[in-house]
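Entry 14. Ran structure prediction on the chain below.
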Amino acid sequence: MSSDEERPAKRARIHFEDTIPVQVGGTDGDDPTTVFYVPRNLIRARSTFFNNAVPAACPNNGKTETVSLDAAAEKFSSYLHVLHTGEVLSLGIRGVYILAHRLGDFVSANLIMDKIFRNMKNRRMDPHTTEPSRYASVINQIYKSTTEGSPLRRIMSTYMAFAIKQSRFHDRVQGLGRQGSC
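Output, structure tokens:
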């Protein structure tokens, strides 16, 4: 290898023998409570929520208290997939982004955000074929579920404004203004 760019990134060793129990789900009847055992060093390094909620080392008695998290088990499982592999699954992707952002894991949130925009650009949100109501639905979910100043909220708003301007919808709106007024 001739440059640093070609070398694979170094990764910290994941200590599977030192895990923390995370209880998720159970918020409604359809989502049973599930406990995941997550490597302490991995989740603390990536999530400000877990870094603050979980001690760096196992307490003297060798037991770590279970961390309860208000999240659907399926979304948390998808989040853990991103955390462990760096691969983003497409199913429920916006909800997984919102969870990563809420947990303060901006590395995972950025990976997920990249995937959201690749999906939009490649097939799902083509400005020439997508109806404006689909844009409104996506913007609404992202806006309601993220905090003010969220990178996804800002980028999504800019992208959607650009996409709508480029679409036939923009032409139809412009045409309405030319039909005359009272």
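The helical segments are 40-46, 48-53, 73-85, 93-102, 106-124, 132-145, 151-166, 168-178. Will compare against last week's run tomorrow.
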